[in-house]
Each structure stands twice: as structure tokens, then as C-alpha cells.
Amino acid sequence: MGGYIVRRIGYGALVLLGVNLATFFLFFTVNTPDDMARLNIGGKRVNQEVIDKWKAERGYDKPLYFNEAKAGSEKFTDTIFWERSVSLFALDFGRADAESAGDIGHEVATRMWVSIQLALPLFVLQLIASTAFALLLALFRHTRLDFWGVVACVLMLSISSLFYIIVGQYFFSRVLKLSPISGYVAGWDVLKFLVLPIALSLVARLGAEARLYRAMFLEELGKDYVRTARAKGLSEMVVLYRHVLRNAMIPIITSAGSYLPYVFLGSLVFESFFGLPGLGAYVIEAITKQDFAVVRTMVFLGSLLYILSYILIDVAYTWADPRVRLA
Amino acid sequence: MPKFVLLWTDAAMWLMAAALAGYVLLVLRRPGLRANWIKVFGDAAALSSSVVLALCLGITLLDSLHYRPLLPPAAGSESSAPAYDTRTRSLLDALLVRLVDSREATYSRPLSYVGFTKESVEIDGQVQRVAPRLKFGGAHLQDPATQWPGDLAWRSLLGLALGALVAALLSVALLALVARRDHRPLPQAMAAAWRGEGRIPWRVACITLGVIGLLAGPVALLAGHYHVFGTDLTGNDVLYQALKSIRTAFVIGTLATVATLPLAVGLGILAGYFRGPVDEVVQYLYTVLSSVPNVLLIAACVLMVQVFIDQHPEAFETGAERADLKLFLLCAVLGLTGWAGLCRLLRAETLKLRELEFVQAAQAFGVPSTRIMRRHIFPNLAHLMLIVTVLEFSSLILYEAVLSYVGVGVDPSMNSFGGMINLARSEMSRDPVVWWSFAAAFGFMVVLVLAANLFADGVRDAFDPRSRAFRPQLGLKRASP
Lengths: 327, 481
Fold this sequence. Notes:
heterodimer, A: mainly alpha, 15 helices, 0% strand
């Protein structure tokens, strides 16, 4: 298993290199540093001198991929591409493009905890709620409860998450005044700010996930070992909880695991709607301000987390199913 | 003579309509495909939602014929060159010209004849705060307080009757077509449809037409003299915006999924067929692509598109052209970033197919690889492509709303559900609350997405026999284990 994980990490590093090259091409070749400078300085003061100063401040005043002026290996190392890549892989993100914004690394480190506070409980509750609902439907399969449950799921997954947020905020915060509309405080008081976004996010994703998990359970229910278990005289509950649930864990882990990166990155929409200063809200701010340095960093971080979470999922397989051997 | 404008998405939508027509002809000629589609339409929910989708497709195509009206020659100017309006209109705008032109000052409630905000007006020498009469909504009423309820009532009733009539006529026309195909008289076919005989439950289609007619009739009749769904901040009719948003949603749903196909199909088949280094490269490509969180990748690409458009303002004659190109490029970006999932699926399926006897036989006969991939592998992947394309459609419509909120969606000047929801956010925090814009966007979007989802489920159940086992049934029979 150790060898497998080392190989996966090696492949992950290769993928990260690809992501880095792609984002660099997108952000520096399509949109040259001169364009970035013009956009950020803005207004009438734009002349070559100001642009050069802006570029020098941020280290953008070098050739993109290949430096003719230098000798030897410096032809490659004294370029924007090399310097940016090295600092990204060292997790040193530099400062944001915008005039007033500060160090990206510091922002990420502080905002990450807000995102985790929102997303980690959500991740766990989501897994429990969706699995429980799907199990309920599977237990009552081919009855009215199952039929109308699936109808409710289809209806719920046809509604945009924005509707849940707007209606939920209006109803619970404005009409019933049960929770604050938006905001964030440090410490345990944060709970009252987090309850509503977590609950709404739970409902918004329940339809799609419960329907998917139900199909997984039904697929397992059609297999031979279930017939054997029933033939042994086990009750339907024991068959479902002891046999089917454990076997359906693998597809469920795969599907739930794809949300793992968002535990750190946070949900873009929910954070910005509820005024939580997490990474998701940070990305939206950066996009509206067209701060490319921040977007670039988040793309890199996102793919890093994706790769890590997939390795984690593979390890989780061995825990869920002892037959799985990673080699 | 107005000047016709062919926007990028117009051309794409008409191409798509032509492709759809071609596909229908193909289905009619191939018995196997035909049997599968009869299964799709045999599902009541899928049939009913296909009626809704067909209606939306009609609206989309009407809204995809653009022109710029000829302006009357300005007084005093001698030049013979015709001048055209800078605003681009579509055929749908021409049909809804009353809604376009009836612009109020600001918010007004649905069906109201007075404005939403009060103004200071001098009455009999005293300044009073009253809600002013609307310029268009209910402007034909002399004494609104007494006439308004009656006017609404008779218009709605007339609308219901007319809607029912149109729906009945359409249903009879549909059943007449069915009767002609079956070579039997119309009354007999109608009776059979009513009893639910045959493989396709035509009565469901007729009931759906009836429901749409009953809903649309009153709206159509009231829309001439009232704002049925109210007006927004700048006084534009909300019903008009919602109807225009259907096109945006449809364009994104169809173009973006079709844009994923070339890369997904091409690379998926190549990787699965050749295996080895080709497979490694393709796998690496889609792992890189799917390792970046989707929204971030799309945001990054769209920002680049935005920079490009901002730097080349001279390339666009009108604002509509710029907004349209942005929509087109958004679809392209969604396509270029979204092919990983389908590619993975097609690669796995090709790996399986290439080991089957018919492919081995073709190889033994010395059929070239390109021909094997085209003639033997591609047709056997078509059902997967169809299922994924149809399933993606609804999720892309939902995605557009999120992207618009994030600020990387369609141009703000273009009507879209995402844009309407975005504005609704601040409207819902006003006091008294402005709910109608939000409700209209909600209603139209849910109907469209729900129809797309139900249709997709029908298609999947018909083309993928495995998924049929998971269908919930109302029948109270015990499951055979």
C-alpha cells in the first residue's frame, strides 16, 4: 500500500505540473502582464512607466517562458513561469494583484478555518442525511412512500440552490427572525450564523444525493448475497444495515468524496450569501475584482486538494472493503 | 426591409434544430431506434415533459431570428443610405411588442394599475402621497377602483375559454395525425387515446396541452393590458424577461453539452481503441482537467474571454452582438472544460467493445482502424452520448444561475434566469418585499428544469436497460428479489 500511495503522489505531482502550465498559459499568455497592469491601475494614469513600475513591484517584469538575456540555466530560471511555479509549489502565493489587497498566503490561512467550520459539519451531516433517506426509500421500495419520496427528490433537484438560499433567508431570518441574515463572529457564537447555511445546503443537495444512493442500494439488493442472507432467515432490517449498507459504501464513498475539496475551499455561493469570510467568498471577491493572482492561487490549491482527496478516497476503500488491496 | 442579423448563437441554434430534424428522420427509418423512442414516449412523465420542452424550443427558435428594424429617414438628411435601429430585435420581440414598449417608471405589482412606490402629487392644492397610475398597466380603465375586478375576471374567463379551445384544437390535430398513421377514423382513434390504449399514452399529451392552454390563455389575454408578473426596478415587464430567459437557458443547455461531444468522443474512442501511450496521454489530460474545481476553471476562462472582449470593442457593431458572442464563448468554455466525465465513460466502453467478436473480425479482415472506429465502435456508443447529453441539459440550466451569481455568467444586458435571481436577492430584502420577479424566475425555471429532468429519466430508462430496475412504481406489488 505504501508503494501505491507513493506512486499516486508522484502522478499527482505530474498532474499539478499540468494544471500549473495550463493556468499559466491562460493567465499570462492570453492575458499579458501589461494587460493586467492596465486593468489594475485603471483610469487615466496609465502610461508605460507606471505599468513597468507595477510589473516590477510584483515580479512580472521578466520574459514569460524563456529569458534570452541570461546565460546557462538562468535562461529558464529567470522567467515569470519558473518563479511563479516554484513559489506555488512551495505554497508561497505572493501578494494579490489589487492595490489594497495583502498577502494571499495569510488570507488563505485565516479564511480556510471559516470554510472548514461551515463545510466539515455539512459534509458529515450530508452523508448521514442522504444515506438515511435513501435507506428509508430502499426499505420501503415499491410502495407509495418510495414513489413519492423519489418524486420529492426529483422536484428538489430541479430547484436551483439559489432559490433555497433566498427563500430560506427570507423566511427564517426576516419573517421568523430565528437566525441572523448574515455575518460571522469568532468563538462559539458562530453557531447561530452557521445553522441556517448548513441546513439549507443540506436540503439543496439532498434530492440529488438521496436518489443516487437509493439506486446504489437497489443495485446491491438485487445481488446474490442478499438472497443468501434472506434465505438464512435474517430480517429485512439486518439485511439492509449489516449487508447492503456495507457493500454500498464503496460507490457512496466515491460520490461523497468528490465533495472533499470543498470542505476547504468552501461553497462559493453559500459563503457569499451568508457573509461568511471563507475561501469561497474570497474567490467570488477576486473574480468580481478580476484579481488574477488570487484566482490563480485558488485554482492551484483546488487541484492540490482534489488530488489529495482522491488518494484519501482510495485509502478509505481499503477500510470500507477489506477485499480491496492497493497495489 | 429590415436588416437581418445572424448572431453566433442563432446560427448554432438553427443548426441544432436542423440536426434534431435529421435525427428524427433517422429514428423513423431505423426500427431499433424507433422502438427505443416509443419506449421513451410511452412513459407518461417523459411524454408530458416533452410537450413542455417542445413549447420552449418553439419560443427559443422564435427568439433566434434577429433583425434590426429600418428607421424612417431623418428629416433633412438627403443621404439615401438606409439607417437601421441600433437595437437588435427578434421575431419574439415583434410578437410581444406590447410588452416591450409598455415600460413603466419602476416596480409595479402583478396585474396592478398603480405603481409600487408612492409619489408626492398635488391634489386640490394639498400635497399628498399617493401611488401613481401606471402608464400602461390598466391604462384603459376609466374608473379603476370599480372596473378593475370585473375587467380582470372577464379577461381571465375569456382567456381560459380561448386557451381551452386552442389546446383542444391542437389535441385533435395531434390525434388526427395519429389516426392517419394507424389508418383508422379519427373518432375511433380519439376513443382509443382516451382509454389509454396503444404504446404511447396520447391522452397525457392532450392533458398537458390542456393545462398549458388553461394557464397560458388568461396570461396572454391579460398581458395586453396589464403586467401579469409585474415590472422590475427599471419598469420592464417581468413576463417578457422570463420568456426571453428561456432562450438563454436553452442555448446554454444545448450548445454547452454539444460542445463537449467532439473532444469527449474523439479522445475517448482513441484512448480506448489504441490503448498504450495514447490512452496514457488522454487519461493524463482529463485528470488534469477534472482536478481543477469546475467553477474556478470556468471563472478563469470566462475572465479571459471578458478581457479579450473588452480589448476589442471595435469588433462588435451592437451591444447585442457583444452579449451574444459572450454567451457563445461561455458555451464553448463550458464545453471545453466539461468533457472529462463523458470521455472517461466512452473510453471504458470502447475498451470493452474492442474485445468483442465483431471488432476482432473487422480487424482480421484488415479493415483500417479509422473505419473500425467510425463504423463499428461509434454507433455502439451513441446511446451513452445521448443519455449523458440529455442528463447534462438540466444541470447546465441550473449551473447558469450560479455562474451568473458568481459574475462569470451571461452578459448583464442579456435576460437570463441567473440575472433575474441575482436582482431578486436585493429585491427580497426590500420592505415591502418585491417578490414577483423572483417568483416568475422560480416558476419558469422549475418547470423547465423539471421537464428536462423527467425527459432525461425517460430517455435513460429506455436506452439503458440497467437503470429501469431502479424506477419507483406505484403498483403495490412486492418486489421480486
